[in-house]
């Protein structure tokens, strides 16, 4: 079974507060046996999909057969009744990433992957343990980013309304709105509550930006990947090919605050950097479901350093885990978010949609990073003052004033020296010399 053909998404059910959704758009719309005049058919269809595909055969210790009897025994007078019942039914799985989307929410999810959205520029999920709404990361150059909202902040109020018990879709419906209108978010950061009044805007997203950087070691390529949307692989390929034409000696790939996206996007991009080796394997309730590997078509074999942080999630972790385990790159920064789940997203007969957790993924060495994340080879945490400087002027991200980037350039210099600065005739994984770990800094 090829994952790249199944409309699979990975991640924290990250939702762009602009249009719903995560991770992606390779959505597989199946013709479902659905009678629009019978809301009970929708309830049964959702139950059947979970029964056939859910990652845990015990359904997280829930008697799924009893759930069917309970919910199909109810009367339903409208689709709204069915929608409410479906959400109640899915809540019993205690899995915030398996979720139902009404037609509007499902349409929003599809719109999100087109590269343009309207909102404040936040990527949200529901924390698995606390059930609170958590910020995965703000999108650069958006109202949320400029206001200073950070990854791992909790949203506790939206325009004064408590978010306790609120799921991600409900939050998105409250936060979204017409461009030019305002929304106030109350954030919990540690023990401090902060109010942010944000103006909604239309946001155009280009997932990749790149540039050539002059350094004492020579010219290097800097590539920043913001999310794994449907156009990310093409933009990444164009970036690498452009920098190769300029004869760079090595690369810094910046995955910080990248919340993830399409599974096939992470695989395609990994193949641009890896000549050989496993990229990712996925495991469902029956065991290993699929294994994806490099295809001997790497675009470059030059030394590579990857920047990661707590906002690097899902597809970012697949890519960075593959590069780390295959000793193709040195990872610098802080521990990643820790989201190792795969969802299948499919349309239902009435235009609604369902995201189902069908598998977990493992890095090439067999690591299950869910809830743990990936530990960088070189730990370097930015102080709050340093983060503030970068937020206020994003042109400093990936500049010498960005301490993590500066460290990446330093390590890349060592990697280039270790390789002799010469490109091998055939692309092979770079030999990684891991620097001594720098203790994490906390201020």
Give the arrangement of secondary structure elements.
Layout lengths: L7 E3 L4 E2 L11 E2 L9 H15 L10 H9 L6 H13 L7 E3 L1 H10 L3 E4 L2 E5 L6 E6 L4 H5 L6 E5 L2 E2 L5 H8 L6 E8 L2 E8 L1 E4 L3 E8 L2 E8 L6 H14 L5 E4 L8 H11 L4 E7 L2 E7 L10 E5 L6 H11 L4 E4 L7 E7 L5 E10 L15 E2 L4 H9 L10 H17 L24
Parallel strand pairs: 3-20, 14-15, 15-18, 18-19, 19-22
Antiparallel strand pairs: 1-20, 2-6, 4-21, 5-12, 6-7, 7-8, 8-9, 8-10, 10-11, 13-14, 16-17, 16-21, 20-21
Describe the structure.
It is built from eleven helices and 22 strands. The protein is globular, with a radius of gyration of 22 Å. It has a domain at 208-340 and 361-419: 2-enoyl-CoA Hydratase, Chain A, domain 1, CATH 3.90.226. The chain is 28% helix and 26% strand. The longest helix has 17 residues, at 403-419.
Give structural attributes.
443 residues, alpha+beta, 2-enoyl-CoA Hydratase, Chain A, domain 1, seven-stranded mixed sheet, 26% strand, globular, disordered C terminus
